[in-house]
Structures are given as C-alpha cells and as structure tokens.
C-alpha cells in the first residue's frame, strides 16, 4: 500500500455538541492516482505518534499542545505546518511509510487493498483518538503551570483608591 503523497490542505473548526475542535484535512494520493481526503483531529496525530514510537526508533516529532487552545489562529497555522512536516517525514521513512497504523490513519482499508476506508469505519479511529486525548489531558493536568501574577496591594492612582473605598462601603451595607 504505497503512498505517493500526503498533504494537509486545510483546517476546519468543528462543533460537536458542547465540544469544539479543529480537524485537519489531509489529501492522500497513491502512485496509481487514487486520491481521497480524510479529516483528523490533533488527538489522532498524538495517537499515531504514540503508536509509531512504541514500535520504531527515530519517529519524527509532532508539536505539543498549546496553552493558547486548539482554535487560536496562530496555533492552527503552526500545528498545520509541523503536522505536515511530520507526515512528509513518515512517508520518507522506509519503515514508517509501510506501517499498518500509519496506513489506517491515512484512511487505507487495513488489511487488504489500498482503497480508502469506508465512512463507517472512521468512528473507530476517532474513538481511539478520543481515548488517547483523555489520557493525555489527565497527564497534562499534573504538569507545572506558570503562576498568575499577584494583584498589587498598592493602588496606583487616586481614582483607583476612591473606587476601592466605594466598593468596600457598598459591601458593608
């Protein structure tokens, strides 16, 4: 199941119930000229990266989660560039380019043939990606985060002092 090319051609902001996320649109092409598109969340990239790292050495890096959130324009642009570079490196790698998980991620029917996955099998990939994202979210909650700056106790202007005094008087009554 050789892959001629994979390119991230876009990013879509998706709303599903209460959750919002960014899906990256991948264009996949085989040497025979068969083409299709698949949409993958960042969490699906994380899952693929984890699977490849457990099986191979020297897996190309992917970008880390951002404190700005996944829908911030700068984050989407930066991730898109780095995830595209990750995919190009995987295609150029003799072992990774033939990996079963990599092919499933790209939408190949695994095993047997190089036709795109049917729409009905896509939720299985997304379910695995959600489980991976939940696990990572629990891990990220334990990381050290920068402290918030403390509010200054000294008020810088006379107007701020007056507002604070008025506020305190309203709270007392």
Q: What is shown here, in short?
A:
The chain is an alpha+beta fold and 173 residues long.
Give an account of the 3D structure.
The chain is α+β, with helices and mostly antiparallel strands and 173 residues long. The protein has helices spanning 42-55, 73-92, 100-106, 122-140, 158-172; strands spanning 5-16, 19-29, 35-41. The chain is built from 5 helices and 3 strands. The protein has a 3-stranded antiparallel beta sheet with strand order 1-2-3. It is elongated, with a radius of gyration of 23 Å. It starts with a strand and ends with a helix.
List keywords for this structure.
173 residues, 5 helices, 3 strands, elongated
- Secondary-structure element sequence? EEEHHHHH
Number of helices: 5
Strand content: 15-25%
Count of extended strands: 3
- Beginning-to-end CA distance, first to last residue: 76 Å
Uncertain residue segments: 112-125, 135-155
Largest sheet: 3 strands, antiparallel
Structural class: alpha+beta
Q: What's the shape?
A: elongated
Query: Mean pLDDT, nearest integer?
Result: 74
Rg over C-alpha atoms, rounded to the nearest angstrom: 23 Å
| Strand order of the biggest β-sheet | 1-2-3
In percent, how helical is the residue content?
A: 40-55%
Task: Set out the fold topology.
Blueprint: E1 5-16, E2 19-29, E3 35-41, H1 42-55, H2 73-92, H3 100-106, H4 122-140, H5 158-172
Antiparallel strand pairs: 1-2, 2-3
Helix pairs in contact: 1-4
């Amino acid at each position: 199941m050789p892959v001629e090319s994979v390119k991230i051609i876009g990013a879509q902001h998706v709303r599903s119930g209460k959750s919002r996320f960014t899906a990256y649109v991948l264009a996949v092409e085989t040497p025979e000229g068969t083409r299709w598109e698949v949409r993958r969340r960042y969490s699906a990239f994380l899952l693929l990266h984890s699977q490849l790292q457990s099986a191979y050495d020297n897996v190309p890096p992917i970008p880390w989660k951002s404190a700005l959130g996944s829908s911030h324009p700068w984050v989407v642009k930066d991730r898109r560039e780095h995830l595209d570079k990750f995919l190009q490196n995987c295609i150029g790698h003799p072992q990774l380019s033939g990996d079963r998980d990599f092919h499933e991620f790209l939408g190949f029917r695994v095993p047997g043939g190089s036709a795109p996955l049917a729409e009905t099998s896509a939720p299985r990939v997304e379910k695995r990606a959600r489980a991976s994202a939940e696990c990572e979210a629990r891990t990220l909650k334990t990381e050290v985060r920068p402290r918030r700056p403390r509010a200054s106790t000294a008020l810088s202007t006379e107007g701020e002092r007056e507002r604070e005094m008025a506020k305190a008087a309203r709270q007392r009554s």
